[in-house]
Amino acid sequence: MIGLPQLLNGFVWGWIVALVALGLNLIYGILGIINVAHGTFYMLGAVIALVLLPSLGFWGGLLAACILVGLIGAVTERLVLRPLLDRPVMTILATFGILLALEQTVGLTFGLSNRAVPDPFGLQLRLGSITYPGYRLVVALCAMLAIGGLDLFLKRTRWGSWVRAVNQHRELALVQGVPVPRVYSLTFALGTGLAALSGVLVAPIVGVHYLMGVDIVILAFVVVIVGGTGNLWGTVLVAIGAAELENLLTLVTRPTAARMITFLALGLLLVIRPQGLFGEKQAE
Q1: What is the pLDDT of residue 280?
Q2: What is the DSSP string of 130-197?
Q3: Where are the domains of the chain?
Q4: pLDDT surpasses 60 at 112
Q5: What pLDDT digit, counting tens, does each position of 215-225 carry?
Q6: Are the beta carbons of 139 and 15 closer than 8 angstroms?
Q7: What CA–CA distance (Å, rounded) separates 274 from 147?
Q8: Which residues pair with 208 in a beta bridge?
Q9: Which residues are CB-neighbours of 204 under 8 A, at least 6 positions away?
Q10: What CA–CA distance (Å, rounded) separates 180 from 174?
Q11: What single-letter DSSP state applies at residue 83?
């Protein structure tokens, strides 16, 4: 069964990347902010969960971390980013400053070494001639449920309809009575909360490190662009496809080369479809 572990790892990692990318997509679609600090919120979720692990357990720490990071995101949007919304370059610089501040603060207080997080289950599944950690499949399931819940929230709730209204036409939504400032705060909280959820879920697999968000956020940015900004399930499909390609390539080449080839493939897709695979072509 050569290649099965790589296929499963790609499937699991794809859902994690999708969670991170959807948070980016949501924030950019509603606020127009390229959130350079998004990977830092991913890291912050993992760090908070690890700190709370002894008192709340893994799942309690996961819930608390998502809520706390979401609140931090909402406060950050309100106090730092909202005054800069009409100046895109300044929002990029502001999020870069947030990235540096949070990374250095966590690095100095939490430490620079990688911290291991125990597997909440310790269950090994027998798949033919190989064993596979059962927790990783739970990670994929949790990510599926979170993304499905986000989809239902956007389509079936009043706040979700407000988010979609602001995404389509901010000025018209404001005229119709949509509380646009609150939608901004909610959107940023949701986006950063999704990043935190991803970081906590992946912590037992890769550990916790103050720079752990750097690699994944670069891939997430590319996935958002290739999937098509504003397209939820397009982002998910591209994330899983990219993760599967990268993991399968590790069978024949080094991980660094596998990542480079994956980025080249995604770049080629953008050359073919500049609007993204599932994005709509803008009228000229």
Answers
A1: 60
A2: EEEEHHHHHHHHHHHHHHHHHHHHHHHSHHHHHHHHHHH-HHHHHHTT--HHHHHHHHHHHHHHHHHH
A3: 14-211
A4: yes
A5: 889 899 999 98
A6: yes
A7: 25
A8: 115
A9: 58, 117, 118, 119, 120, 135
A10: 6
A11: G
